[in-house]
Write a structure and sequence with these properties.
This protein is α/β, with parallel strands linked by helices. It is about 40% helix and about 20% strand.
């Protein structure tokens, strides 16, 4: 009889939505698929042997039980219990000819939003090895500011490394100006921010191109690092060390066959954190201190691991994060192209 994943120390806690994507098929049918950026990030980290806890409640309805069972099978710890009657959030998903998803969300009075900052902080306090807290996506809605802002402030004050994936959803927000303002407030609490070129446009960050926009955003925030993803053009890592800004850009050396892009950013972020936490453990340092001491070659290692993680995912249908050994094998067989 096969055993499940072996328990490991929880080093990362993730908060935010877990929902069911109802993906529209060519014949009009809706195919249910587990989703939500924080849910996907939790799975992706667990598959790369990182101890991770998912902090939000999951519904006791059919879909919620499916989400909970899947997280447990992956080795993710679930620390909150939903109250009866709170349904699982839904997202209606259409995919265009380029494989880009378009979402319509149904998230009123749902289980993953039925949580408080006090409950999130209590969960984190019960994790003695916790180093990193992550959020993003729909958790950045202004309506949930009372949940996530106090939580992030307390975790940062407690010494955790704060990671925010902007993962902008302007179509789901009724007041775009208020949404942008709130997202910027959340980003100001982060040590690492992940953004895509589309996120920067949705945030209306000034600049002539994605890199200049990312540099402008980086300069306006007290970040240690920013990851800018550019689809098939690769990614850029923007760094702040000893008060100096730098960047490292890379992409796949050969074209990659893309099935769809669902979950690619989540897998990229998981790969980045996996390599960073691995380096920190190797040197016996907290992640923040380890990053301060890394050189360019070390950061290239972070970038390579992140890109390989995302590349493996886009060659599959839906979000199917790779396992650690798959990423290692990809890196050995497919070196990256490093841009000047």
């Amino acid at each position: 009889m096969m055993s499940g994943p072996q328990p490991v120390e929880v080093r990362v806690a993730v908060a935010g939505e877990a929902l069911m994507d109802l993906v529209q098929q060519a014949d009009g049918r809706l195919q249910p698929s587990m989703g939500g950026a924080p849910f996907n990030l939790s799975r992706a980290l667990a598959r790369q042997a990182i101890g991770v806890a998912y902090l939000n409640p999951l519904s006791i309805d059919r879909y919620g039980r499916l989400l909970a069972r899947h997280l447990a099978q992956e080795g993710v710890q679930c620390l909150q219990t939903a109250q009866a009657g709170q349904p699982t959030a839904l997202a209606l998903v259409g995919v265009d000819e380029q494989g880009q998803p378009a979402y319509t969300f149904y998230r009123e009075q749902v289980a993953d939003r039925a949580v408080s900052a006090q409950e999130l902080n209590a969960s984190c306090a019960a994790l003695p090895a916790l180093e990193v807290v992550c959020t993003g996506g729909l958790a950045l809605a202004p309506a949930d500011a009372g949940i996530y802002l106090p939580w992030l402030r307390e975790q940062r004050a407690a010494g955790c490394w704060v990671v925010v994936d902007a993962n902008m959803r302007p179509g789901a927000m009724p007041d775009l100006a208020a949404y942008r303002s709130h997202v910027m407030q959340v980003l100001s609490l982060a040590h690492l921010v992940k953004v895509s070129d589309e996120d920067l446009e949705a945030l209306a960050v000034p600049g002539d191109d994605p890199l200049s926009r990312a540099q402008s955003l980086m300069a306006s925030l007290p970040l240690q690092m920013m990851a800018l993803t550019l689809g098939d053009r690769g990614a850029v890592l923007l760094l702040r060390q000893q008060g100096q800004l730098g960047c490292i850009a890379a992409r796949e050396a050969r074209p990659v066959p893309v099935i769809d892009t669902v979950g690619a950013g989540d897998c990229f972020l998981a790969g980045l954190l996996t390599r960073g936490l691995g380096q920190a453990r190797l040197h016996g340092l907290p992640l923040a201190r380890c990053l301060e001491q890394m050189d360019r070659q070390d950061f290239q290692g972070l970038m390579a691991h992140a890109l390989a993680s995302a590349t493996l995912n886009v060659q599959r249908t839906g979000c199917q994060p790779p396992y650690l050994q798959e990423v290692i094998e990809r890196l050995q067989a497919h070196p990256l192209q490093w841009d000047p």
